[in-house]
Amino acid sequence: MSTIIVPASTPSPVEDSERLRKAFEGWGTNEKLIIEILGHRNAAQRRAIRQTYSQLYEEDFLKRLQSELTRDFEDLKNEKPEDFLESLRIVIKCICFPERYFAKVLRLAIDKLGTDEEALMRVVVTRAETDLSNIKEEYHKRTSKTLEHAIAADTTGDYEEFLLTLIGKQQS
User: Which of 169, 170, 117, 110 minimizes the C-alpha distance to 139?
Assistant: First the structure.
């Protein structure tokens, strides 16, 4: 499992947008630059880049990103179009609505017969405390129950206590 490493000092959204524009222009897409930028920014920074890019260049950043990346993944698209489209949807959801996406992952991990413990742990352990707070809010909006309640109802013992501690359960 890997984590996003955000540099201590990051360029402004304007600088990132300008670099992304350069990655899109000319013959071929500079995928490495796109990955370098988007892969080393947190969700709030990616949202700011999206908004800034759209304002600067008067085009939808996600549509441009999709058109650039679609060409680069033609083999995957041709061999397994459903995998390609699902992967592309996940990337776009993570950029646009990370809290909604992770709340859905948690809901799907918990709301079925048997818990998908790997998915549950991956989200709980990898999300920053502020991220998790927003994810818990989104989870509550979507399910009408708290994440704490859902975890407590679906897990037991030390595992339950561990997960509840990680998500910041209020001590009683």
Answer: 110
